[in-house]
Amino acid sequence: MADVAIPRAKPQMSEAGAWAQLKHNRNWLGFWFMLPAMVFLIFFLAYPLGLGIWLSFTDTRIGRVGHFIATENYEWLWDDSIFWLSVFNTLLYTFVASAFKFGIGLYLALLLNEHMPFKAMLRAMVLIPFIVPTVLSALAFWWIFDSQFSIISWSLKHLGLISQNINFLGDTTWARICVIFANIWRGVPFVAITLLAGLQTVSPSLYEAAILDGASSWQRFRYITYPLLTPIIAVVMTFSVLFTFTDFQLIWAMTRGGPVNATHLMATLSYQRAIIAGQLGEGAAISSAMIPFLLAAIMVSWFGLQRRKWQQGENND
Amino acid sequence: MSSVQIRDVRKSFGNFEVLHGVTIPIEDGQFVVLVGPSGCGKSTLLRMLAGLENITSGTISIGDRVVNNVQPKERDIAMVFQNYALYPHMTVADNMGFSLKLRNASSDEINKRVKRAAEILALSPLLDRYPRQLSGGQRQRVAMGRAIVRDPQVFLFDEPLSNLDAKLRVAMRTEIKELHQRLKTTTVYVTHDQIEAMTMADKIVVMHDGIVEQMGTPLELYDKPDNQFVAGFIGSPAMNFLKGHVRVNGVATFEGPNGVKLPLKTAPAGSDGRPAVYGVRPEHFTIADDGAEAEIIVVEPTGSETQVFANVGGEQVVAVFRERHQFNPGDKVRLKPDPSLVHLFDEATGKRMNA
């Protein structure tokens, strides 16, 4: 009987006016709700990004309209050893600082997840570096690493370990160590608190089951905690890498890229060329050169997350 | 397989004692159900048996070995958790083989034992799935599979069926019982559901407020509850309790609320005039001319039987009939308890008075 066609009522939709459709159609309704967020994002994110990329293809200077010069800025940077030094510095800074932030952050998170006295207070204390404004903490570090008044040099001298002050921010190696240290100090709370939140989503009965299955505390970390935490680790470390890679404030307040450009990151070099020297086009090119690196970092975590099959699959219950 | 002895075990959290000296002997291969309302300490006791909680005083032994200070993994027990506690990032096979892997068993050995357990539980087609992709009943079976693979001395179950829907719960109940009959491993099973306890147990331990109220086979508990608590806890719908006094003048009777006369087979010696509680199960009422007068309030037919709520001497009682009486709310009937099946409890202590 399937071949007997039942005369269908004409769809009512076509008769409704276009305006009524705009008001009631689900897709259009969704569009209206997204519109404010879209406007906001276009205006404050997409437009500046587009403008920055456009500027990098021009020879714009402060106070002068630029002309399109294609990839001339990039070609110039390609032969600029200071630019390549800043790329190296940025990668070193990001890699070393992120690795330490991850290690220390995970350790703190595991520690704070244990039962111990004053747990709430300790958790609050961990957040302190995070809530102090960056420039203030950078200034504090600036004094801690001062060539004459450094408390570290002073203490070591009084302990008789060294005979003269360490030139923390004047020596290229020391300066790199100092800014990386300051960045780690600032970044650890974010990693620790977020991973702690992740740890608390792991059901305690999984650990109990693992204890009964005979897992030692290392095995519980290796086979339960770590795999269950990987999605959160991926997200946290992506953010951490992005923030570190684009860091500006800390460097600018502590060293301004010195000594001899040893701590110049791409962000600080871009600022120096674009704003201080007025070469907006060239500065924009340096900034735009960060984009491939940032995209690569995002891709790594994206594909890292995609592989976790156990999180997907339909829920049958 | 081995026996388990729980001797005068106490547990305190700080100053608060939750178990007040519990002694439970469990024979080799027995299926023991700890049952009681929430907060009675049954789960705590199970966790102490597993080694997840330490023992404040008393001893627990598995086989001949006192395990008070033995690490959980050395106790040779396996536990099924209420929420199953399956590792979400491992496949069914990996979940089941995890304990063997930790013991450095060869992969051949692991495969063999996982396969065998999967066959027992009909999980073979699901071995490569993740817990997320399983239904509630399948997850339950994986949790049991994880226990079976270990081939432990004792199985512990902590309310394993309470996350399942009613129909599945009945099916899994049978499955667990069948599994026990097949493997004959000593099993301790915790539940708050007296039907689960009645249907599955070789021995039921009724717990209440940190003490053991009564231990025995399901039918012993049903036929001869030691006290009013056990009487009210075992059986569904619950036993009816009527307060009143024992009267002995020639023939023993019970004077219930508002002078209602209820039959007694015998009265304990010297109990004339004693305040007592008269207990009668809903299924032990009949309609008889010499019964107590009752006014029907609500009639609930379930098909196989009919539950009748009625007013006897101002108290509400429930009676269950398998015959199809035509009752209507407001009808006056005469309900007669079977005198050989009634229970008499001391009003003050709740202890059983009749033999």
Overview of this structure, please?
Chain B: GO terms for molecular function: ATP binding. Chain B: It comes from Bradyrhizobium agreste. Chain B: This is Sn-glycerol-3-phosphate ABC transporter ATP-binding protein UgpC. Chain B: Residues 4-234 form the ABC transporter domain. Chain A folds into 2 domains: 26-56, no CATH class; 72-306, MetI-like fold, CATH 1.10.3720.10. The radius of gyration of chain A is 27 Å and the shape is flat. Helix content of chain A is 69%, strand content 0%. Chain A contains 15 helices and no strands. Chain B is of the alpha+beta class. Chain B has 8 helices and 19 strands. In chain B, the strands form 4 sheets. Chain B has a 6-stranded mixed sheet with strand order 6-7-8-3-9-10, with helices on both faces. A 5-stranded antiparallel sheet of chain B has the order 13-12-11-14-19. The longest helix of chain B has 18 residues, at 166-183.
